[in-house]
Specification:
Radius of gyration: 18 Å
Structural class: alpha/beta
Number of helices: 14
Helix content: 40-55%
Shape: globular
Order of helices and strands: EEEHEHEHEHHHHHHHEHHEHH
Largest sheet: 8 strands, mixed
Strand order of the largest sheet: 1-2-4-3-5-6-7-8
């Protein structure tokens, strides 16, 4: 990524690796599960060229950022604290926060918990999910049973080893199966005696929106970090739910934007939450579905995502 530099900062007790470009109002890009800062490669230069200071960290447990061994250090409060610590390290009072997948959950939570530090929030693929009367893990287990993939992730070491067995095959499977190129939505229920990758076919080649160089970047990053840090985000879901009790059914009041792929299987399961967003994000300025696009929106449809983000960011500036 030309024009993008890399460095380490201290954030919330972590040594955090960040990719950085441009100058101007700060935009923080938060990656999702089985991704890292590189997943924003199509956005960083576009936003920097438009006059923004763009920072994409490797989040806690990922890439070259610290990976605490204690699972208890991966709660939603820790992850929001990392974002605020990043703003402090950059000497910035406020930022627009953009997240994808799990990063969306952190972005929404940061806007909820620290609206004084967030000028606007954009979630990609995952809508704001307010704290409900039972944890996400409990709700999904009730809906899909004990073979639901999040439940499979709970056993330390099991999914870690499966995903690490052939890292290139893992990412071909995960990135293809979640994309709009897959012939059908992936099944979140794992067959008895099987693993997560058993429901994610490996096409043997990268999808057309990815290059072999991109795949190599993923392989290098996760051969370095492993998968345990990423999986720990799931292993602490119930504790995060308990800690967020004070924000039961809370509404977000900073300006918001939601972008998702119309072919994303998650959108099928979260349709009610997407429909409810205007009542959950009081200043929702758009909910954009991208036809033919799957879960990896900023990589599958970079031009459309960049345009939507730039319009949203300009609107924030116009209303200051």
């Amino acid at each position: 990524m030309s024009g993008v530099t890399h460095r380490f900062v201290s954030s919330n007790g972590l040594r955090m690796h960040i990719a950085e470009a441009g100058s101007g109002p700060l935009v923080v890009l938060l990656h999702g599960f089985l991704n890292f800062s590189y997943s924003w490669r199509h956005q960083m230069e576009a936003l920097a060229d438009a006059g923004y200071h763009v920072v994409a960290p490797d989040l806690r447990g990922y890439g070259r950022t610290d990976r605490p061994r204690d699972i208890g250090q991966y709660t939603q409060l820790h992850l929001v604290g990392d974002v605020i610590g990043l703003l402090d390290a950059l000497h910035e009072e406020q930022a627009a926060v953009v997240g994808h997948d799990w990063g969306s959950m952190i972005a929404w939570s940061t806007a909820l918990l620290r609206p004084d530090r967030v000028s606007g929030v954009a979630g990609l693929s995952v809508p704001y999910v307010p704290r409900a009367r039972q944890s996400l893990l409990t709700a999904m287990r009730s809906r899909f049973g004990d073979r639901y993939y999040m439940q499979y992730f709970q056993e330390p070491g099991t999914a870690d080893a499966e995903l690490a067995r052939d890292v290139a095959a893992t990412f071909r499977s995960v990135l293809y199966s979640g994309s709009g190129d897959a012939p059908a939505p992936w099944d979140p229920v794992i067959p008895a005696g099987g693993g997560w990758l058993d429901v994610l076919p490996d096409p043997g080649i990268v999808p057309p929106w990815l290059t072999e160089a991109d795949l190599a970047a993923y392989v290098e990053a996760f051969e370095h970090s492993g998968f345990t840090g990423a999986l720990n985000w799931y292993r602490i879901l119930d504790s995060s739910w308990e800690l967020m009790g004070a924000w039961q059914d809370a509404t977000i009041h900073v300006p918001g934007l939601f972008i998702y792929g119309a072919e994303d299987s998650f959108a099928l399961y979260a349709a009610q939450l997407i429909d409810a967003l205007p009542g959950l994000v009081a200043d929702l300025r758009g909910s954009l579905a991208l036809p033919g696009c799957g879960h990896w929106v900023q990589q599958e449809r970079p031009a459309e995502v960049n345009l939507a983000l730039l319009e949203f960011l300009k609107g924030l500036a116009d209303h200051r």
